Amino acid sequence: MELTIKINNTPVQAEPGELLLDVLERQGIRIPTLCHMKGFFPSGACRMCVVENEQTGKLITACSHTVEQGMNIKSHSARVIEARKTIVELLLSNHPDDCLYCVRNGLCDLQDLAREHCITERRISGAKNRHHLDLSSASIVRDPAKCILCGRCVKVCSEVMEVSAIDFINRGSNTVIGPTFNKGLNTSSCINCGQCIMVCPTGALSEKNHFAEIRDALNDPTKTVVVQYAPAISVTLAEEFGMAPGTDINGLLNAALRKIGFDRIFDTTFAADLTIMEESAELIHRIKNHGHLPMITSCCPSWIKYAEEFACDFLPNISSCKSPQQMLGAVLKSYYAEISNTEPENLYVVAIMPCAAKKFEGQREEMTQRGISDIDAVLTTRELANFIRLFGIGMDKLEAETADSPHGVRSSAGKLFGASGGVMEAALRTAYFSVTNTELPQCKIEQVRGCTRRKEATITMGDLTIGVAVVNGLSNAKTLLDEIRNGRDDLHFIEVMACPGGCINGGGQPLHKNPEALKKRMEALYQIDETETIRVSHQNPEVLALYQNFLGTPLGNKSHELLHTSYCQRNVLL
Ligand code: SF4
Ligand code: SF4
Ligand code: FES
After folding, report:
1. Alpha helices in 437-556 (DSSP H)
2. Cα angle for residues 217, 137, 499 (degrees, 5° grid)
3. Which residues, listed in sequence order, are joined to residue 405 by a DSSP beta bridge?
4. Domains of the chain and CATH, by start
5. Which residues lie below 8 Å from residue 526, measured CB to CB, with a gap of 6+?
6. Which residues form ligand 1's pocket by a CB distance below 6 Å?
7. pLDDT (tens digit, 9 = 90+) per residue, 234-257?
8. Which one of the listed residues 155, 208, 322, 358 is annotated catalytic?
9. Out of 25, 116, 366, 401, which one is annotated catalytic?
10. What is the C-alpha separation between 531 and 412, in angstroms, rounded?
11. What is the pTM assigned to this prediction?
């Protein structure tokens, strides 16, 4: 039965149990929030969303109060506006004044709220807490001085990622957010996913910047600087330049990278196809030879670090394939260096990734050849957008260009890697071909598509029937792993992506507030798959040529040396 409440003296219907914030939003009334995140249990920590309940005369938080019969809510009374303004002023009183130099300048919720509340001078001042910048992580920079203690990062880290690398430490005015013993993030269980960056309303969390190194390399005449970009980038970068979510600007991306001055431009999707060749062969080999099953994908570096710390019992199940970023890095520093007459140490490889954890992955010891790292620097999508702005490149004035060959041709199956379920779909297309010598009658495998947190399917390939599962968000991965620990045995292959929705929602992607953005990005990848001619990795002519000219066969000696690796238990402060 519906309730009737009044909002600013207008009667409004609401469902019992509905949050005031949702009812107000439905009426088109925007209430400012800081700690609130849709879908999470409200903490009521910041009090930014206060409204006035005329029935009781109290100020209450709209994000944590449900509707009650007879309420008369004033959403923007003078008292409410003054209370919100004071909250912002109190936050600013303990906040650095270096907005001009802040990584979130122009993209900061606190800055927006100060502007909205016409705060133009410091009215409340007091002693500011002293904090240290934490630069210890390979991927994430923490600036606790800019933290407003909203707790959003803590919730994402524990509830979505199941990691709990950070939490509230100390009490009262000494409260900070940090890892165990407030040590560097590098000593913690942090898996570098960057999802905390995505929800932080201020500049307290950001990715480790590789800007300066890349600029130096571009200016160094002894270096050949090549770049690769991940499958998801072409459908997310556009948002940084005011285009609609899901706009595919692959051709403009190539043109922009050339204008920046990269010597060669390669598509990581080529290496996604290479990964599929190796991974599908590995899956079939494991099934036929009673290897460790279910086999679990290895493309997501956050998932790998999570497994090293929290799920060591599943390390033998993880595919030995390196991720596409690392496979392409290894091929570039060996095969490409050879055919282009470049010394590997003079070949500087930049990867543009949707992901903060790729910065960590790129500097892992396992990802080197004779002491030379396969990847030299990683830029997130957001950092690339800054690079494009720095070089004054007008995206609207560019003509579409193609990537360079070899290593620039791709299938649309590889492109699907950008969304949850994509690695699975691409691998199943090729595994089907390997087992039956015929193409899958319908390329599209609907059961593994979409934003749902867990997807499952049973696939028949000739006389082989396999169970597959796709999970995104590590809390969902943990639930599935627990089922397997408890005896579930019908699965042969699992895809795990740490970030909800997969790489299209990675921790390095454009910060957005559009709830539809994720769906649009995913649809864009599916659209590419509908329209392109090469839809399976095993038909990528450049991948086939690489095997013929250099690698030999999938799982062969050369592939093992360059494209495969293994992981072991990692001890961290929990
Ligand atoms: S990067 Fe991921 S794991 Fe690390 S603190 Fe942030 S949310 Fe937690
Ligand atoms: S680091 Fe950011 S998300 Fe975390 S509590 Fe501080 S302000 Fe909030
Ligand atoms: S947004 Fe409601 S208390 Fe923080």
Report:
1. 474-485, 517-531, 541-546
2. 95
3. none
4. 3-76 (3.10.20.740), 91-207 (3.30.70.20), 212-563 (3.40.50.1780)
5. 416, 419, 449
6. 140, 156-157, 161, 163, 165-166, 190-196
7. 999 999 999 999 999 999 999 999
8. 358
9. 366
10. 9
11. 0.95
